[in-house]
Structure formats: C-alpha cells, structure tokens
Amino acid sequence: MSIRFTTRARGRLSAWPVAIVLAFGLVACSGGGGNDDDKPEASTAASKSSDSRPDAQEGDSAETLAELKGPSGLFLKITKSERDAGGFVTISGDLKNDGEKTVNVPAQLSGNETEIIRNGSSLGGATLVDPKGKKRYYVLRDTDGRPLTTTNFPALKAGESLPVFMQFPAPPADTSEVTLQLPMFTTGTIEISG
C-alpha cells in the first residue's frame, strides 16, 4: 500500500511542475503580448534614468524651489516640498559637488545634537523656519533617535550629485512659505505644496 501511495504521490508531484510551467506561461501570455513589449521599455526607462542624469537635472530646472550654496563647491537644489496628511513636510532635492575635487560631506550637516550625531552623518542639522508663525521646526526622528533624512553620505566626486530628503513637522495649514536652514549653507525660502 505504501508503494502505491508513493507511486501516486510521484505521479502527482511530477504533474505539478508541468502545471506550474503552464500556469506561468498562461499568465505571461495573458497580457496580450504587452509584457514582452513592456520589458524593453522598463529597461530602457531604467537606463535612461540612470544614464541621463544631466537631462533629468535640465528638466528639474523649472521645478527648482531653492538653491543653497555650501562649502567646498557643495550645492543643494531643492526640487520638492510637500505637506503630507500625516502632519509632516517632506523636502527633497539633490546635493551636488560643483567643485573640481572630490568632497566629503561635512559632519556639521548632522547638527550638534548627540542623539542625531550618534546615528552617523545626515542632514539632521537642518531646520525650517516659519517667519509668519515665528517658529523653528527641527528634523523628525524615529523611535530610535535616527533623523528622518538622507544618511551616511559617500564622498562626492566632482560633478556628482546625490538625491536627498528631510522630513519636518508640518507648520500650520495657512503657512505656505518657510525658510530652510542647513549648517554651513546659505538659506533658502521654499513654498510648501499640498
């Protein structure tokens, strides 16, 4: 009886791979042939986004909200500032080395709070100032004290840029303009969307 069971089990098990292959074949073909066309486009899109960084920057020039100049040729271009339903503002952009030499991102950008410094290099020293409400907002932190910003920066080669973000508590809904301050950088006024 155990031999019959084994034979039946083998028969059933050997049918599974065939059924699985057929099922995957049907799923792959069910898109009307669109999946084969999508794959080259996806890889083309991926290569365009990674290979055409200058084009992306040229396209973002209309979306530049603020430009902050820093030390050693560092340059921070803010391209997005959104108010989220969760009660915070996310600011994002690109940190670029406009200089001619490789630059290490200064440790001062992390700020001077021990809890933030302990978690490595970051943009934890950034603040938003609401001139209308006369309040300053500091970078948010998670439950472990890590700042909600880009962290652990590599050295930036000449001309190289790095996407960055920072999250802050949201100012009141009637506040649409804030000033972004980052240690060692010029300040910039940003309009919050959303």
Task: Set out the fold topology.
Blueprint: H1 2-29, H2 34-51, H3 53-60, E1 66-69, E2 74-83, E3 88-97, H4 114-117, E4 127-130, E5 135-138, E6 161-169, E7 177-181, E8 188-191
Antiparallel strand pairs: 1-2, 2-3, 3-6, 4-5, 4-7, 7-8
Region (Disordered): 33-63
Protein name: Secreted protein
Summarize model confidence as the mean pLDDT: 77
| Sheet/helix structural class | alpha+beta
Number of helices: 4
What's the total number of strands? 8
Q: H/E element string?
A: HHHEEEHEEEEE
Low-confidence stretches: 7-62
Largest sheet: 4 strands, antiparallel
Report how far apart the termini are.
Answer: 70 Å
**Form type:** globular
Strand content: 25-35%
Q: For the largest sheet, list the strands in their spatial order.
A: 1-2-3-6
Could you tell me the radius of gyration in angstroms?
A: 25 Å
As a percent range, the share of helical residues equals 25-40%
Structure commentary:
The chain has 194 residues and is an alpha+beta fold. Helix content is 30%, strand content 26%. It has four helices and eight strands. It has helices at residues 2-29, 34-51, 53-60, 114-117; strands at residues 66-69, 74-83, 88-97, 127-130, 135-138, 161-169, 177-181, 188-191. A four-stranded antiparallel beta sheet has the order 1-2-3-6, with no helix packed on it. The protein has a four-stranded antiparallel beta sheet with strand order 5-4-7-8, with no helix packed on it. It is globular. Residues 33-63 are annotated as: Disordered.
Labels describing this entry:
Secreted protein; alpha+beta; 8 strands; four-stranded antiparallel β-sheet; 4 helices; globular; 194 residues
